[in-house]
Structure formats: C-alpha cells, structure tokens
Amino acid sequence: MKRKTYKPSIRSNVSPFYVMELLEKAKKMELVNKKVYHLELGEPQMRTPDLIKDEVQILVKKGIAGYTPSNGIYPLRKKISEYYKLKYQVEVPEDRIFITTGSSGAFLLSFLLNFDKGDRVAIFNPVYPAYRNILKSLDIEVVEIYPEMNERNINFKLIEKYKELDGVIISNPNNPNGQVFNDAELKYIYNFCKKNKIKLISDEIYHGITYDCELKSCLNFGNEIIIINSFSKYFCMPGWRLGWVIVPKSLTKNLLKLSQNIFISSGNIAQFAAIKAFDCIDSFDDVVKSYKENRDKSSKILKKMSLLDYSIPSGAFYFYVSIKKLKIDSSIFVKKLLKDTGVALTPGIDFDTKNGNKTIRISFSPNQKSLLSGLKLFYKWYKTNY
Question: Any residues with CB less than 8 A from the CB of 159 and at least 6 apart, and which?
Fold first, then answer.
C-alpha cells in the first residue's frame, strides 16, 4: 500500500471550533442578501475608538520601524503596568509583561512555557474550547472537570478530586456562562494550586466587563501565577490580534526565547496604537453599561420561552442556555434556527464536550436594535415550533 506523502499529524486532529463553522454558513447567507442576526460572536459592541484609529494614521505617516522587541514595546508594557497599579493596586514590573499576538498567542506560549508532553492540565467546563484543543495539539493531557449533577456553575472545590495535576486553567469572567468568581473562590484556587505545586493560568480577557460587582485579578492573591489578557474585549480592539501575558520573574528568560522563535514580535502599529486605549477607559466603561442594558432587555424576551433554562450572567456578554427540555441536539437546533430565521447562535458543544449538546450560547454584545430584533425572531420561531 502506497504511503501518503502529506498525511496530517495526529496532534493536528483537534476538534473544530463550531462557532466559526456557523459563522461561515451565516456569511454565505449574507452573500445572497439574506439578513443575519449575529448573536453567535463574542465581539464588542463598540468599534475601536477614534483616538486609537487616528493614531494609526499618524503612525503610518511616520513610517515607524518594522519589528519590535519580542516581548513588546516598552511604552505599552509600561502602560499595562500602570493600569494594574491603578485598577488592582498591584505592582507588576514591565519585564514580567509580554505583548503577544492576541490572547491565542499568549495561550500557546504559556502552555509551551509551563508544560511538557504528557503533563496533566485541568479545565473547568463549560470552557473556552481553544484551551482544550491547543493543549491536545501539544500532547498535553487535558483533565475535564464538569459541574455536579443539575449544576450550571463551576465549583473550584471539585479540583480536590484531581490532585495529580501539573496545571489548571481558569477564566474569570467565564466564557460561556458569564460566571464571576468572588474573592473567596479566587483565593481558594490560588492557595490550592500553590500548596500542591500546580501551575495556575488565569484567563482574564473579560476583565472590566462585569455587572453589579467588583472583580479582582488573581495577581491580588500572589505572584505565582500566569495572567492572560487581551485588547479584544473590554478594550474594543477585536481583530487587532494584540494581547499580553504576565509571568513570574523565573519564567521571563525562557518566555522571551519562545517569543523570539515562534512569533518574532506582535504588529508594530497595533502596539503603538494600543497605548492610546488607556486614554479611553471612560468610553469603555460606558460600553459595559450598554451591555448591562442589553442583558436585562434580552432576559425579558428569553423568559417568555419557558422551556429554556439559564442564569443571569454577572460578567462577559453571553447567556449560556440549557435547551434540554426541547429534546433536540444543540447543533441541529442552531442550524435550523439560522436557516429558518437568520438568527445565528452558538451550539454548546464548543464549550462542553459532555453536556454541550443540550446548551446554546447567546451573545448580547451586538447593538441593541439588532440584538432585540434577532431575539424577537427567535421567540416567534420558538412559539411556532415548541
């Protein structure tokens, strides 16, 4: 039997990101002039502020240099350091901050930096699927921790059943269920990992997007942690592919070498322009207020659909909804809804490989008119079918 020359590696055989497949279907519908209501994507409502975009024009005219240092330009790392001092009252030296190619680049670098082949890393479901898939592609064993029976929220204390671990990944606020972890929960998971010599990675890319509560960074509980953040969500710069990671001093040397060899550097114009983002905090906070209004108005529509089960999210901008009572697979459900109405939602299988076929994610980040129009169509379709 002739061997195939271009056979994909075993490690490349990861699960697809179903929301992106759904987006492709939605875009094809739009190409034939069908109206689509995008409630599937996690994109900020407000586009990048003019102050940042205007800075791009200035930078282009200046003809700034090409590559930047692999850990990012110093002025941006300094701004981030100052931001942590102001917002969280923690000191983060600039040399512990690395600018990355989006949060995705931060995840890849952090996993390579901290784990070896065969290490065991725990994630709490429901969870952002890229954690699972990047870890698997690196031959790292993923330990899935699921909520207890009839529970929708993540319980950190379930980790006590899994002490033979090399790492743990948490996200706060959580994508997809909007759960926000309080001080006691964060202190518990930090101390548990420190006591058991488990490396803790905290994804904080939805920090700043919370409702009726103040949120601490895991850095408030100690420096033995990896923090990942991004300019995509709160800072309204999706698509600029700019994030950052904060690591303990002991890891900076190796992280710099990985950054030099894998990414060389992040985009120079994006980095210099992002400095202006810290002058737009009031605007970003106003956007969060609009998310809260969207959340509350959306909930009034969702409540009319009595077979749906959900909790009011405390952070991020998603409803994570159980459709168990509808007795239909979530992937089939969202495809049928898109075809019949043009309303695009995300199937839960992206976020929970065990229970995701019974859940959907609904984003309430779009502009309010489009959001409510889409949800009203959803409600009308629901009444007809259920």
Answer: 122, 145, 165, 168, 189, 192
| pLDDT, tens digit, 9 for 90 and up, residues 252-262 | 999 999 999 99
Question: Where is pLDDT greater, at 40 or 226?
Answer: 226
Q: Rounded mean pLDDT of the chain?
A: 93
Percent of the chain exceeding pLDDT 90 equals 79
* Alpha-carbon distances of 112 from 122, 135, 214, 333, rounded to whole Å: 16, 9, 32, 37
In contact, 113 and 251? CB cutoff 8 Å: yes
Task: List pLDDT tens digits, range 172-201.
Answer: 999 999 999 999 999 999 999 999 999 999
- CA dist., res. 166 & res. 377, Å (int): 47
CATH number belonging to domain 10-47+281-385: 3.90.1150.10
Look up residue 3 and give its two tokens.
């061997």
Question: Rounded to an integer, what distance in angstroms lies between the CA atom of residue 193 and that of residue 181?
Answer: 16
Give the span between the Cα atoms of 309 and 77, in whole angstroms. Answer: 43
**For residues 377 and 258, what is the distance between their CA atoms, to the nearest angstrom?**
48
Dist. CA 273–CA 59, nearest whole Å: 8
Alpha-carbon distance of 61 to 84, in angstroms, equals 32
- Which CATH fold topology does 50-277 show? Aspartate Aminotransferase; domain 2 (3.40.640)
Residues 6+ apart with CB under 8 A from 254: 113
**Burial letters 226-246, b for 16+ CB under 10 A, else e:** bbbbbbbbbbbbbebbbbbbb
Mean pLDDT lowest among 37-46, 312-321, 331-340:
37-46
Report whether pLDDT(160) > 60: yes
Every domain of the chain and the residues it spans: 10-47+281-385, 50-277
| DSSP-derived pairing of the beta strands 199-203 and 167-171 | parallel
- Report the pLDDT averaged over residues 339-349: 93
Residue 165: its pLDDT value, please?
97
Q: Record the tokens describing residue 154, joined without a space.
A: 């993540």
> How far is it, in rounded angstroms, from Cα 366 to Cα 8?
38
To the nearest 10 degrees (0 to 180), the angle between helices 102-114 and 252-262 is: 120
The answer, yes or no, to whether residue 97 has pLDDT greater than 90, is yes
Is the separation of the CB atoms in 22 and 347 below 8 Å?
Answer: yes
Residue with token string 């698509």: 239
Joined tokens for residue 68: 């930047």
pTM reported for the whole predicted model: 0.93
